[in-house]
Structure formats: C-alpha cells, structure tokens
Design goal:
CATH topology of the largest domain: TIM Barrel
Number of domains: 2
Shape: globular
Order of helices and strands: HEEEEHEHEHEEEHEHEHEEEEEEEEEEE
CATH class of the largest domain: Alpha Beta
Largest sheet: 8 strands, parallel
Strand content: 25-35%
Number of strands: 22
CATH superfamily of the largest domain: Glycoside hydrolase/deacetylase
C-alpha cells in the first residue's frame, strides 16, 4: 500500500496560519493611528520676501533634515492604500507637495529631492500647462511646467503629479465645482497621459459641495490648507487632508538669553526677527528634554520674549524655533 506523507499537509497548514497572522497584523497596524505630515510648498527659488517661495539653500537644508530624521517620502495614493486596505507605511512617512506646478519644481526642487532620496507630488493648474517650452504659460507672473516636461519628469520618477483644478478657482464658491474638477482630470488624462488620483483644492478652500465634486470627478485623495498633521484612522477624510504650511522667505533671528533678569529656576530668551511675518513655535532644549511654548507670529523688526521654568541648574540650554506643527526647524 502506498503511504502518503503528512509533511506537505502540515507545512501547508503552517503556511496558512502564518499568512493569516500576517494579514491580521497588517489589519491591526492599519488601524493604529499614525502621524503622516503632508508638507505644502509652492515655489523654490531665490526670492527672499515671499511667503510662498522657499530659497533653494533653505529647501535643501529641510530635505537633508528630513532624511537625517529617518523620514521616508510617500505619495497620497500610498496613504489611501493604507487607509483602505491596510497597506504598510514606512516607520516615519511624509508627503511632500507643491501647489501650482511652477517650473522651478523641475529645475531646482527635483535635483535636491533626488539627492536626498525623496519624492514629491506637484499639483498642476491644467489651464496654465502649455504643450512645449515655446508655448509655456504663467501663473501669477511665474513660469509653469509644460506637458512635455511633465512626461520627462514622470519618467525620472522623483516627481509625481496631481490636479489643481482647471482653472485655479475657489471650488467652494464656484457655481459648478464638478465641471472644474472633471476638466482638470480630463486634461491630465489627455495631455499628461496618465490617470491622476490626487487633487489639491485651489486656495485650500473647500466645502461639502467641493468634496463631493472631487469624489464624483474620480479623485481618491485631496489636500487643503488646514495647517495640521494628518493622522491615520477612522476620522481621517482622504478628500480633506490637512497639510503643514512651509512658509517661505529668508528669516534672520537675533537670539539672546537674559540671565540678569531671571529669577531662580527661570530661563528667559529674547529674539529679534527680521523678514516677512512667520509663525514659530519656541522650544527650550536641555539635558532633561524639550519644553515647548505656544506658537507665536513674529513680524519684521519685532522682538519676542519667552520664559520657562527650569528645574535644576542645567547650563546646556538651547533655544530652538520650529514651525507650528513642529516638523521643520527654523532656528538654529
């Protein structure tokens, strides 16, 4: 009589158990809240007095910082896959976005992103996208990408692309927001030769009508301008994702500690700011850790004073300034 080995059955059963355990782990992991910062940029160029333009050397320092801190760039579609199906996210995910589709995303931002192994998504105003360099169009006086440049960038892989309406118009106030969202998607499919999944609300403005228009147009994710960090879970709306506003301009800070005015256990720092207005979050670093104060807007030529109660006699104190959401350092 022929005997059948039980090993294949045992191994097959074990494999099913392992696969089931992995599936369960992925499902549980997808339900664990994760912070996913979505950075919002507009331009990277040598302009020092614009809130929407980050100088190239500052942008490079920011990308270097993200890489040093262990961030891995993902795209909105990756976040959607995690929300819907439990697809795994990297340990420290981050999404880098650019509004308006300006040409300097290609000429300045892309090489820096590639240098640090990061990706970004650019939201195109399809009404301002010409077909070739000789047909280049502008938005607010600045050159925009052409469809030929979009094709070439997609082949290189550092930049992905989404829609920013057709034309750049506030969807919450538009008589027919669905027409604008559909038009932008059709333009990208026709001239960009790919199907876009991500959308960015023009001006960051949206309401329920705008959200429904984006959904009906066929987009799976949409970003606004609510200055906050996205957090995965049931409460996250993929069609109303918040972003961290990365303010532009060049800023100079004169920082001084004021020990002669400190009482016992008190630490005082004064900061004078030069540059366009910017919101900062002060942080006192010591051997014991970090102590944060509420965000404050610094205007040009103004002086701010911050006080902390510091236990012990720690002399290794350092003042740091961060953005409102505490993602990117602004000083030192």
């Amino acid at each position: 009589m022929r005997r059948w080995s039980t090993w294949p059955l045992l191994l097959g059963g074990l494999a099913l158990v392992v696969l089931g355990a992995l599936s369960a782990w992925r499902w549980l992991d997808s339900r664990r809240p994760r912070e996913v910062p979505i950075l919002m940029y507009h331009r990277v160029a040598e302009v020092e007095n614009s809130a929407w333009c980050v100088p190239s050397d500052i942008f490079e320092r920011q990308m270097q910082f993200l890489r040093q801190q262990g961030y891995t760039s993902i795209l909105p579609a990756d976040l959607a896959a995690h929300q819907r199906w439990g697809s795994p996210l990297p340990k420290r995910p981050i999404i880098i976005t650019f509004n308006d589709g300006f040409r300097d995303c290609l000429t300045i931002a892309e090489p820096i992103l590639r240098q640090y192994g990061l990706r970004a998504i650019v939201f195109l105003i399809t009404d301002d996208s010409g077909h070739a360099p000789e047909e280049r169009r502008q938005f607010e006086g600045t050159d925009c990408l052409t469809w030929a440049e979009v094709h070439q960038a997609r082949q290189r892989g550092t930049l992905a692309f989404g829609a920013h309406a057709h034309p750049h118009q506030n969807l919450s106030a538009a008589p027919n927001p669905l027409e604008l969202t559909k038009a932008s998607r059709k333009q990208i499919i026709r001239y960009g030769r790919f199907i876009p999944d991500a959308f960015s609300y023009p001006g960051g403005q949206y309401n329920e009508r705008a959200i429904e228009a984006v959904r009906q147009a066929g987009f799976g994710t949409a970003v606004g301008c609510v200055n906050a960090v996205a957090r995965t879970g049931r409460e996250l709306n993929l069609l109303a994702l918040p972003r961290v506003s990365v303010m532009g301009g060049r800023h100079r800070y004169q920082v001084a500690r004021v020990p002669e005015e400190e009482t016992d256990g008190e630490v005082i720092f004064r900061v004078r700011h030069e540059g366009i207005p910017i919101e900062v979050t002060p942080c006192l670093k010591s051997a014991a850790g970090a102590s944060w104060l509420p965000p404050q807007v610094l205007k040009n030529g103004t002086e701010a004073e911050w006080r902390w109660t510091q236990a012990g006699n720690d002399q290794a104190l350092q003042l740091e300034l961060w953005d409102r959401c505490r993602i990117l350092p602004l000083y030192p």
